[in-house]
Amino acid sequence: MKSYETILIDKAGGVTTIRFNRPDKRNAMNPQLHRDMYDALTELEFDDETKVLVITGQGEAFCAGQDLKEYFYEKKDDPRGREEARRMSHAWRHQKLRYFPRPTIAEINGWCFGGAFTVVASVDIAVAASEATFGLSEINFGHIPGGLVTKVVQEIVQPRQALYYILTGEPFTGARAAEIGLVTMAVPKAELHAKVMDIAATLMKKDPEAMRACKEVFKAVTPEVTYEDAWYWLSSKSDQLTYRQKGGWIEEGIGRFMKKEYRPGLGTPPPEKERA
Ligand code: COA
Fold first, then answer.
1. Is residue 181 over pLDDT 70?
2. How do the domains of the chain map onto residue ranges?
3. How far is the CA of 71 from the centre of ligand 1 (A)?
4. Ligand 1 within 6 A of CB of 30
5. Most buried of 14, 100, 127, 194, CB within 10 angstroms?
């Protein structure tokens, strides 16, 4: 894997970790980071060694949002550069990361502001340190949560709480982020990495094609989709999965339950070679 100016990539035991690596700038996202993320995710989406993708931050921050200097201030008289940065910034978070074919986890180790909320929203599972600090700080510098920040916050955070934090710009903890639905869960910082690795280990035991189909349908059947359309979509996805797995979920998944080899209600079956 090639090396990048603004991110670090590490692979171990099926888990690929991307680490935002601008700790001196609290991992704020500058145009180069957007380019690096787009490039890295494009490479990793076809990488056989990547069974689970983790995104975290180097140092004390997860990500302080868009780089206020390089992404906004220095681009104020450069519409072309601004548009390039904006498109790249959108593409990696809302196309590449949101639809990444493997499960994705954010390990939110510290500061998390503004534009970083869309990273949190685009991953499948977000685990925060209870002590981390979150904030929709845009109002504090006289702006709106732009890009797709307002959209994702409206989708995943309790609406009364979302608008409160948008309007006040008040910072809140990782524990609070879990209460209002922004993250999946919060754990003490000392336990954060172990918890993320635990979840990754669980995900790696599941069938990868089924995992991918679960993600795809979940992200497709949004509240705007009608019941009728969702039904057609899910039926087609089920048939596509049967084709991709060559019938595996019926023959292997249900077949082994019928032979009383495991209870699906209580977990994934042991690998075939470990059968009694
Ligand atoms: N964009 C650009 N630079 C940023 C940044 C951002 N979003 N967040 C932090 N930095 C830079 C600072 O300019 C400073 O750079 P310098 O050392 O070259 O002067 C460095 O990171 C450290 O920042 P500092 O404010 O001294 O760190 P801190 O630990 O005291 O505070 C924050 C951390 C994140 C609370 C604070 O930096 C902050 O409020 N950042 C802006 C967050 C924000 O509004 N993000 C929304 C963007 S959409």
1. yes
2. 7-204, 208-274
3. 13
4. no
5. 127
Q: Which residues contact 84 (CB under 8 A, 6 or more apart)?
A: 31
Smallest CA-to-CA distance from 15 within 101, 102, 73 is with 102
Tell whether ligand 1 has an atom less than 6 A from the beta carbon of residue 27: no
Nearest protein CA to atom 2 of ligand 1, as residue: 67
In tens, the pLDDT along 118-175 reads 999 999 999 999 999 999 999 999 999 999 999 999 999 999 999 999 999 999 999 9
Q: Please give the CATH topology (third level) of the domain spanning 7-204.
A: 2-enoyl-CoA Hydratase; Chain A, domain 1 (3.90.226)
Give me ligand 1 centre to Cα 93, in Å: 21
Q: Which residues, 6+ apart, have CB-to-CB distance to 211 below 8 Å?
A: 102, 103, 203
Find out whether 233 and 220 touch, Cβ atoms under 8 Å.
yes
Q: Which two tokens stand for residue 145?
A: 């949560």
Q: Please provide the average confidence, as pLDDT, over all residues in the chain.
A: 95
Q: How far is CA 103 from CA 66, 72, 203, 222, in A?
A: 25, 32, 7, 19
111 close to ligand 1 (CB < 6 Angstrom): yes
Confidence of residue 275 (pLDDT cuts 50, 70, 90): very low
Q: Which residue has its alpha carbon closest to ligand 1 atom 44?
A: 137
